[in-house]
Predict the structure.
Amino acid sequence: MPTESVQYPIAGDSAATIVRSVERAVTGGALAPGEAVPSVRALARQLGVSPTTVAGAYRDLRQRGILVTHDRSRTVVGHRPALTSRLAPPLPPDARDLTSGNPDPALLPDLGPALQVVGPVHRLYGDDPGVPALLDLARDAFAADGLTTDHLAVVGGALDGIERVLEVHLRIGDRIGLEDPGYAGSLDLTRALGLVPVPIEIDDQGPVPASLADALDQGVEALLLVPRAQNPYGAALTAERAAELRPLLDAHPDVLLIEDDHASSVAGAPVVTLTPGRQRWAVVRSAAKALGPDLRVALLAGDEDTVLRVLGRQRLGTGWVSHLLQRLTAEVWRRAVDDGSLTAATVAYAARRDALLTALAEHDLEAHGTTGMNVWVPVAEEVPVVQGLLARGWAVQPGEPYRIDAPPAIRITVSSLPPEDAPALAADLADVLGTTLGTRRG
Ligand SMILES: Cc1ncc(COP(=O)(O)O)c(C=O)c1O
């Protein structure tokens, strides 16, 4: 029988050396994201050190988001630990990749014409961090959605904006309310910042009021919500739900509210915001889904203190987002609005989502995805379903990286799934669920 030292390549005789050994195992791929590490007692026995030493090492690794504890007992490597880890193994060559959350490259605007007109102008240290053409576009778009635009900053994508706002307001150990299920990248980021995630249940209309109230009562310092194209669930906050949530938030005026509008104009729903009247707030709107992830730019609107702090902190580090990138983003954005390509992409994503939801409903399978690029399908057990679909040629994501307490599910990215392929995928999923497993229907 293999011993744990063979199964888990962790060495060390002090907390610091155990930490380094786990980091190396993750970096080298000997411990994969999601893989369990031994219990404190088992590792202490194996290494001949005290359980307190191992517990100290695990605490350090948890505070940095490298390890994550599920259900109070199972400790695993984080989904995307804050280390340079080996990339996930490639999918079999014939598998349809529905794992990535990426936009469909065929629906992204053509960069060529915009690249031709973005002039070869140098900028120098000390210039304004934001490019006026991009700020003007952002101001108009935010204002059209009823958002205050007195204070704006340009950041390097939605996650960069979220990280900066959290950094300037929160401290290690602070609690943050996150949607459950929610975006794995945000969950991993908050853990890497040493914050304590507090789960908030969601349904198709956004956060469930009683669950939000619970999180607020637990003393969260901040809430991070995705108002539309919620990833992985596809929820979009409705005006009715927002009306129920506002009084709950009003009772906690100091709580920082961040809204992550990562899919912006291709989300497939109008934005509904809870930010008006808040003392500390930020809305970050990314170009990544609408214009392409390589245009890693986002616009951040917020209250004066938040935006000034973010700009001040940005000045100490990267300074600004490249003006070349900002000018290109502004040009691509303006053209994509004018030539209708953003509208066409939004319509196509909606058709792909709807086709899969319809096909799954024909097999009586519960699924969620009213907006965005993903469909969330509750299942009894994730791994066998993911494996069963892979055996039939479909690569999908297990839900675990997106969940805190939420029940199991799989996430299917539909952005590149033509409507005509949806029935075959739904039939294969029904087959996997029906032949090998108990199903969750409804
Ligand atoms: C909810 C959510 N927020 C943020 C991001 C990342 O956005 P960005 O590339 O602008 O950092 C994603 C990417 O899929 C996402 O799903």
